[in-house]
Request: fold
Amino acid sequence: MQQQMSVSRVEHAVAPEAVGKRKHSGERATWVRGCALIPNEQGHVSRLVNQGLGQYGTVQQIPITAPEGVRFVPDDASGDAVLVIAGSSGRVDVDRARVFAEHGFIAESIRWFGGPGQHAGPWEVPLECFFDRIAALESVSDRVWVVGTSLGAEAALLIAAHLPSVAGVIAFAPSDVVWSWTDDARTERSHWTLAGSPVPFVPLAWGGYVRETPPRFRPLYEQSYAQSPARVEAAGIPVEQIQQLVLVAGGDDQVWPSSESAHRISARRRRAGLETTVVTRADAGHRTILPGETVLTGGQSMQRGGSEHADRALGRAAWAAIRLTVAR
Reply:
């Protein structure tokens, strides 16, 4: 049976040479060659990559410290930059940042927990640690986008809602609310803090949750959402304050109901007179695979849904939507 791909907004096709360029710009930015982050011989790895724009260029891989991370700088950068935020692993998402860099973006990803001076898990992470990286990217680009997956998508939406300078968000497997995590003392905490205070969150309703092997957490999030309407309202991410937004979700996501969250976000923005691009596929799961990405096999043992075929198909549709949005 042929699976249907759903894209909520149809746009005119954009010529490949226009992708990644600013509409007001008649030529590519040349500021990259003079920026302070040009590395030395020991500080980077260079290789020839296909930028996806009909030509080849060198992408420099530059390590970041405090927090741990990486920045990719293409020689022929488009003027756009992305901060890539991984999900509940907290890892540096090197692969996704690389893919964006190969298409002309300055691309950066950082470890946001589990590193020196950071919490061991994803609880009460200061949003300001992302604000600092965005400020650094803004100093070397025309526009900055935030790309997040799962918990990273939750962060990306919050970041853009509080930083008007962010051009937009590309959120994979998003949530429309802030959720909690249990700290080392077994106390439930918000995922995030802002200005030193915990961001309101929806608590997890563990009572009645039947754990499977490997675990499937979607029912836990669904029942938690249903049981706490007041907390859901308080923990809602102010998505109406985000400029441009692309949401990517699999209907078979077994980690949490990201497709439902994507449609709730879109509905809220529509009521506010805002446009949103939602890309979904019914048989795809939690992990979208973009063109050029490798299949992730690590991480916490859990059911994520989907299949490599479906997740790659969703990734192809998502990438087309991303290209159209960034070219606007």
